[in-house]
Amino acid sequence: MNKFIKILGVSLLTASMTVTSSLAAPSVSELEKSKKATQSEVSSLQTELTNLMTKINKLEEDLVTKGEEVAQAQEDLKAAEAKEQEQYQGMLLRIKYMYEAGDTNFVENLLSSESIGEVLNQAEYVQNVHTYDRKMLKEYEETKKEVETLKTTLEQELANMEAMQKEFEGDKKTLNNTIAAKQSEIADFDKQIEAAKEAAAKKAAEEKAAREAAARKAAEERAAKEAANNNRPSNNTSPSNNGGGNSNGGGSNNNGGGGSSSGGDNSSVNIPSDASKASVIVSTARSYIGVPYVWGGTSRNGVDCSGLTLLSHRAAGISISRTSGAQRSGGKRVSLASALPGDIVGYPGHVGIYIGGGQMIHAPEPGKSVCVASIYSCGNPSDFTRYW
């Protein structure tokens, strides 16, 4: 009876430990479930961010085009104003010749006319000159007003698009912050899950040790009980344990030999194909320092970020795309550790020319000029692209 009670006690202890172990499992499971839900949120946010970046890239293309239209309208307006002024000055000159310096000759011509037809022709000529001048001046004035209206409209559209870009940038920043927070949550879940697994493993080991100890104790007690019930002498000869324990395991000859790493590091360092072009890219970018930011600009009068990188590469005889998104998707991608002066530093919706030492030359934004800045002044660089 006593033996049965002890065996029952060991069984109940084992069952109790099993129940305790199973109760710990939901903690890890719940953590994994929460982590999975957060990862799903991050995935959704990443999709939203990708869609937003597509909009930002498209908006940049529109801003470049609109900036070029504004620049053309400004040139057309200057031409119209110059033409108007030229015509006006011409009219004044003709009036002066006819009515001031040339009035006597004009009257003499009228008086010396041999017929009334010639007189009328002379008078008609004067009238026609005035009519022509009035007509041309009116046309130029109307053209100037049309160009001024177009320029104003384009500038307003550009301002609206810039406001939209800032709104997109704000949304992008919010999304990035949210994603970072969610990723931090995931990292925290990983730590909690790891800690929970370690605790569960430790508890399982302790329970296993306790079960093994209880089993040994029960076996010892059982053996002792059986020995006590056995009245035979304890020095009874028992068969020698000659049970062929000759363990010929032999397989210890670990002739693995495969540890000879003959290849070494197969990764090769990318040697620049033409460093002289990189030097031209950097020096050209430097020459634009102080030039104002102008959407769609590709001249000394103004450049935008991708316009600066375009001109810098063009000076080195390298043709690249016009907008930042297209520039970042072309060329050869290099890491920050491998980046060299002349590479393009890329960010979502922005680019600059890397000049080494964590510095770049870029056209920051409307209202500012081309300058030297830290590559982290626009956030963490997304990529580096090489075309030389």
List the helices and strands and how they pair.
Elements: H1 2-101, H2 103-111, H3 116-229, H4 275-287, E1 298-299, E2 302-303, H5 305-315, H6 324-329, E3 332-334, E4 344-347, E5 350-356, E6 359-362, E7 371-374, E8 383-386
Helix pairs in contact: 1-2, 1-3, 2-3, 4-5
Could you please describe the fold and organization of this structure?
The protein has a six-stranded antiparallel beta sheet. It has two domains: 2-214, Helix Hairpins; 275-386, endopeptidase fold (from Nostoc punctiforme), CATH 3.90.1720. With 388 residues, the chain is of the alpha+beta class. It is built from six helices and eight strands, in the order ααααββααββββββ. α1 packs across α2 (103-111), α1 runs antiparallel to α3 and α4 (275-287) crosses α5 (305-315).
Spatial separation of the terminal alpha carbons: 91 Å
CATH class category of the largest domain: Mainly Alpha
Q: Roughly how much helix do the residues carry, as a percent range?
A: 55-70%
- Rounded mean pLDDT is 77
Strand order of the largest sheet: 3-8-4-5-6-7
Low-confidence stretches: 1-26, 236-271
Rg, alpha carbons: 44 Å
Main beta sheet strand tally, sense and closure: 6 strands, antiparallel
Which features would summarize this protein structure in a list?
388 residues, alpha+beta, endopeptidase fold (from Nostoc punctiforme), two-stranded antiparallel sheet, 65% helix, 8% strand, elongated, disordered N terminus
Could you write a compact summary of the structure shown?
This protein has 6 helices and 8 strands, in the order ααααββααββββββ. It has helices at residues 2-101, 103-111, 116-229, 275-287, 305-315, 324-329, and strands at residues 298-299, 302-303, 332-334, 344-347, 350-356, 359-362, 371-374, 383-386.
